[in-house]
Amino acid sequence: MWTPECEKIQNQAERRQCERIIAGYDKSLQSAATTTAAPTTATTRRPRPATTRPPPQNCDPSYPDFCIPPPPPDLDCNEVNGSNFTVLPPDPHGFDGNSDGVGCES
User: Fold this and answer.
1) What is the 3-state secondary structure (H, E, C) of the chain?
2) Average pLDDT over residues 30-57
3) Is the pTM of this model over 0.85?
4) How far, in Å, CA of 45 to CA of 29, rounded?
């Protein structure tokens, strides 16, 4: 017996079992077949919002690893919490003395 509920099932044995359950011939597996018989649909997921936070206010973009305020005042390595951090030009505090992109190298 053909039923639209079972039409989408690719496996022939499962499709026959679905048809028998829908027709009422096999009630022992009715709950299992009902979930099998449901047509599969593609789910479209909405993109997640960006999880990156905007940089905090008053942070110099030359130091992306953590927030270091722009001058003034001019800061030295012993006045910031970190070493071996990324430094991008123009490096207003002068943390990258050898211009290799790493600030306050230890």
Assistant:
1) CCCCCCCCCCCHHHHHHHHHHHHCCCCCCHHHHHHHHCCCCCCCCCCCCCCCCCCCCCCCCCCCCCCCCCCCCCCCHHHCCCCCEECCCCCCCCCCCCCCCEECCC
2) 60
3) no
4) 32
